[in-house]
Amino acid sequence: MTDDALLKQLEESTKDFSRHQAETLRSILQHQRGVRYLQRHLPGAGDHNFLIDAATFRLSVPLSCYDDYADYINQLADGDKCTSDDDHDHRHLLSVDPLVCFFYSSGTSSMKPKLIPYFDSTLSKGASHIAHQGSAAVLRKFFPPRPEVNKRLAFIYADSITTTKGGFKVMAASSFPLHSSSNPNRSLFMSLSSPMEVILGSNVEHQMYCHLLCGLRNSDSIDAIHVPYAIGLIKAMWVLESKWKQLCDDIEKGILCSVINDVRMRDSVVQVLGGPQPDLSNRIRLIFEKKDWGGILSKLWPNVRYIRSVMTGSMKQYYSKLKYYAGEVPLVGGDYFASECCVAINLDIKQPPDLTRFVMLPTAAYFEFLPFDLAENNVVGEETVDVCGVEVGKVYEVVVTTYRGFYRYRLGDVVRVVGFYNSSPLLEFVMRAPKTSNEIVTEGDLMAAMENFQLVLRNTMGMAIEIVEFTSSVDFGSSPKRLKIFIEVKDCDMILQDKLQESNLRKCCSDLEDSLGSIYKVQRNKGEISPLSLSVLKCGSFDRLLKLAIENGTPASQYKPPKIIRNPSIVDVLKENVIVTI
């Protein structure tokens, strides 16, 4: 299908959202009518003449979260087909389609990712095809291919694959095409500046270094820079800042530094280097020696046309820094695709995060909207509305019924309906939904407060202080409970002179507490919360969290630093790295 045909199909699908949604739900229920999960709530669902309308479906099947599927998913992972030994009809647990593998969720608050079953569903493939191929067509519309400059510097990692007790592979959704030799998308990876051996490596730090090295070797041929999440490019830039001399030496000599010990990766990168390149090395070295990192990406890769990454949600905090590195190169936003299903597509990819809007895809899944009260940081009851009931300006938690085994599933994303594209809701991503009613700050509150805090910190301390990363946790062991914020700054030695000038830091901490949002302020004024605790961490502390997450199964390509930590063991790791606490 041509790009014009794909874009036309996308356009047409948005013109009758309600009809497409009704057809999508009918298709899902008709196809999955025999699954155990549905039959628990819809007696007679296994009948071939089974028909049900959307209203009855919403009335009969309760809202669900991951815990409602955990037992079934564990049984699938273990290789079980039914829920009991005496169940001889082998009814499928969540889907009638064959189970192919499991995907890891991208959530990081617990450090243990959830398993999302991936079923071989023809219907789902059709729905996701139009989403993914449509997204690629949108990108090509803005940036038509150039035969002479045709390589992408992509910071992607295939991640390690684990196997369940039942013999099913577990991987990141983004890694699936990389591990599937028959996948038609595999040809897309031929345009990457890095060889597959780098992408398939097992050490993220070494892979990142090799991505940069291969990208620099092909500096004139790089058309675009791709990274799944904005944090991935920020980390790559930190490597570039600290390792640029070694990178230049490797290019000059045409060999790879001895630190990279993966033989296959070494051999493939040496082949890309193609022998000593002293002229290229000198050209790149001169750029670095100027120590001007503003617009560095366009200086190193003069033909790059855009940088693509997800920059909404918790990634929004990195946008200004990416803008600094990118200079005049456009930052292009990603789509709203979840591990469970595609939700919405970004048709205006050049907009900054604050103005990014996503057009919902009516054939990707059946969508419901659970009203959400930002002032209370919680949903309003458990009664959803469909597309006919949404109101512009209102906030909702997204609920999905998918082709791959989730029914009225709370996705955990809070969005605002800002308008309509034809008849499809136009969404603004607001934040991840709170896990419990005990949470006293939202991700949005925390990010806004920390942005202001950095400005106050610089003005008060009289030095250019850069907060590298931050997170928070509520200590329920304190009486009353206490919010703890942990920060890591770029230059620990400089900022820690005189113990961070504690009196100044204490004043900054007070300003931070005053900007933490209405939920926090109300409880603080009532005396239900102890004064804020602020801890400064050793440099590299958040890298330790990344390593810990990867060791526990989180794919490196999907890692997002948690803004609200709910796992006490992760808090303990941070406490071990505290330099000073106010």
What do these coordinates show?
This protein is α+β, with helices and mostly antiparallel strands and 582 residues long. Among the domains are: 143-303, no CATH class; 441-579. The chain is built from 20 helices and 20 strands. The protein has helices at 3-13, 17-31, 36-41, 54-60, 70-78, 122-142, 176-179, 196-199, 204-217, 230-253, 263-273, 278-289, 296-300, 319-326, 443-461, 492-495, 498-514, 518-525, 541-551, 568-575; strands at residues 99-104, 115-119, 151-154, 162-163, 169-172, 222-229, 306-310, 331-333, 336-337, 342-345, 358-360, 366-373, 378-379, 395-401, 409-421, 424-432, 467-475, 482-489, 533-537, 578-581. The strands form four sheets. It has an eight-stranded antiparallel β-sheet with strand order 9-10-11-16-15-14-12-13. Strand 14 (395-401) and strand 15 form a beta hairpin. Helix 1 (3-13) crosses helix 6 (122-142) and helix 9 (204-217) packs parallel to helix 11 (263-273). The longest helix has 24 residues, at 230-253. It starts with a helix and ends with a strand. Residues 82-90 have low confidence and may be disordered. Belongs to the IAA-amido conjugating enzyme family. It comes from Gossypium tomentosum. This is Indole-3-acetic acid-amido synthetase GH3.6. One of its GO terms (molecular function) is acid-amino acid ligase activity. Residues 358-432 form the GH3 middle domain.
